[in-house]
Amino acid sequence: xxxxxxxxxxxxxxxxxxxxxxxxxxxxxxxxxxxxxxxxxxxxxxxxxxxxxxxxxxxxxxxxxxxxxxxxxxxxxxxxxxxxxxxxxxxxxxxxxxxxxxxxxxxxxxxxxxx
Length: 115
Description:
It is a single chain. The protein is α+β, with helices and mostly antiparallel strands. The chain has one domain. Helix content is 18%, strand content 24%. The chain has a two-stranded antiparallel sheet with strand order 1-5. A hairpin with a 2-residue loop joins strand 3 and strand 4. The protein starts with a strand and ends with a helix.
C-alpha cells in the first residue's frame, strides 16, 4: 500500500489512458496476480482532477474490507485510508492453555462467597 502517483490510471476499468509508464505498472500488477482495493478518490486539489493514487494491493481479493476515506492528516491533500485487513495465521506446535492465578482478586472473591 502507499502513494503510487499514477493519477491517469483508471482502476475501475484497468485502463492506463495512454500513459506508457502507467501501462507498464498495471501490467506488472496483473503479472503478479495482485488485487487493487481502493475505489474512491484519494487525492483532491482545487485546480486538478481528483485521482486514485493511494493504493492497497493484496494477493487475495477478500483480504481487505471496509475501506473508509477519512480527512487528510495535517496539510496533506491525500485522504487517510482506514480498512480492515483480513489475514490468517497458522499456530505451529501444541498450544498449552495456562491460567494466570496471580491476577485473581481473591479478596473480592472471598467477599462474594461470604454474602
